[in-house]
Amino acid sequence: MKKFIFALLACCAWWLGGAQPVLAASPNFTVKTELPSNQLDPNVHYFDLLVQPGSTQDLTLLLQNTDTGSHRFRISPNRATTSAAGQIDYSQHAASSPTGLAVDIETLLSKPKTVTVAPRSTKRVHVQLQAPKTAWSGILLGGIRIEKLDHTTGETQAGVGITNQVSVTVAVQLQATKTLPALTPQLQFHGVKTKLTTAGALVFAKLENPLPAIMHDVTVTAAITQAGHSKARLKTTQSALNLAPNSTFALALNTTAKALPAGKYHLDLTATNGQQHWTFGHDFTIQKAPLEAAKQANQPAVTKHQSLPAWFVALLLAILAALIGAIIMVRRRQP
Predict the structure, then answer these.
(1) 3-state DSSP call for residue 292?
(2) How many angstroms separate the CA atoms of 316 and 199, rounded?
(3) Where is the signal peptide (predicted)?
């Protein structure tokens, strides 16, 4: 019920606010965007900008604190990345960039800062954008993350851009030309990464979208077969993946419940966006976990002490029987 009330209040604020749409709301703060004159699509709530090379402008957010106490917020401009689940992520600051990235949008926006908003008031927050001096191809994609630092208990408001109950992300998309180039989607495969757990190994396929364009609605199908076996040890299909421009990511192929033991494996991976198709194959090895290797190294010594040869056991029994017989005879001779 509370979620419905907050959603209704957010919609009312949007209707009454006119030019500034409510991007998202939580129980005690809302975020609005002031869309500038170079906004390409006025019907979206994020910054979709046609930017002149070498230009400078401020991106303005209206941060409203509806609570009775003041709150501190961290404003972090980030480059868009692709998560291990294959979805666009705007929340990572200073994320490692692929070698083919020509322009990092995070370097074009002002550095992270912290602002304080007084009780029941609205603060205008500016993030400066400094465009590259020369034009670029395709789009540059990032986001401005607004995170409430003094966390309080509350409910989340469903909506575009909310990453958790105390943070909101506003996407920023930049292009230097009104018409984007027609780019044929590409998908690159860079091998396999494994992560050892107590249950076995998690397997990730290292993939890359090398183009300055979002790759939408990708389906990935993977089959992992252990050496010496014909039947796949693990099969998975993941659909509706959306890859950020110029991004590399490690797509998780299994969970802890399906972790794989040590051994040699082969991965067959196919991907499609409905028009293009990609096929990859790769051999890889899962090493023993340190604890498992130590147990196996100690196992022969333990077995050797626990299992004695049959002849040795028979000899011991014979000696024991002789000793018992000698003791009995000595006792019978005693007066």
Answers:
(1) helix
(2) 43
(3) 1-24
